[in-house]
From TrEMBL:
This is TIGR01777 family protein. It holds the Pfam family DUF1731. PANTHER family: EPIMERASE FAMILY PROTEIN SDR39U1, SUGAR NUCLEOTIDE EPIMERASE RELATED. Residues 261-307 form the DUF1731 domain. InterPro entries: DUF1731 (IPR013549), Epimerase_deHydtase (IPR001509), NAD(P)-bd_dom_sf (IPR036291), SDR39U1 (IPR010099).
Amino acid sequence: MKLFLTGCTGFIGRELIPLLISEGHKLTIISRQSEKKIKMTVNSSEIKVIQMNPADSSSWNNEELQSSLQSCEGVINLAGEPIAEKRWTDEHCKEITNSRLETTKNLIQNLRNLKKSPKVLINASAIGFYGSHSQTEFTEEDIPGDDYLANLCQEWETIAKNKPRATRLLIIRIGIVLAKDGGALGKMLPIFKAGLGGPIGDGKQWMSWIHRTDICNLINESIKNSSFSGVINGVAPNPVRMNEFASLLGKVLGRPSLLAVPGPILKLILGDGARVVLEGQNVQSKKFKKLRFKFIFPTINEALKSILN
């Protein structure tokens, strides 16, 4: 299948793109990175790279891009600045918002202008849709929360729903993605390997996570299986408390995990962005049971052993 990809050259894309190539798909990759940089990590004749900023509407007036859109059969949109890596200054919040909303607006507008619509659009969202709560268990049937991330996710999903009528839409509310070369785990590993790791905050907050291989397999399966539509929570079936996660991570690494990272210190580093890891959410998916999707790594113990051994 000919696929059109935005936001797929980051942390998830490092595993997703090779998987899609191995499945026989031909890819057009829209990225702010250069073709040379992308092909250093993925050397394949089955990819075409168009360097541009997809959040800039004027950059879509490109003959090569429009030709790729006209012939594409599926679209994957994972565009978005990382949420919990910097302080939430006004400027950074604008980057977080625009990288998602403006990119998706431009994508949808261009898809609606096509003579022939793609068969499927897979659009990212996040479990931040539900807001944070220490006790409530959230599923796809729950209403959105009422904070910055919840409002952002709600608007992001609303834009995606304006896709062409003939295009099947799957919105994946992605949890904390685990792999050792980036994301939350990538930042924790050096600290834990030095024996200085431990739970963040009080350790009681929930982590709703997914192994990167499983989220990539979910996206891959969604391309070819029309049963995958609507909204699905991209999380493993067994969320854990932060203190359990820290304990297991220390155990797998053979290091102590006793030194908690105080919430005020994290707030000093990340500002409001610290809420993402300090408050947490217990998110489950009812959809996975109906779809009979098989996780390779359903438990945190299996996931960490796979990643670190």
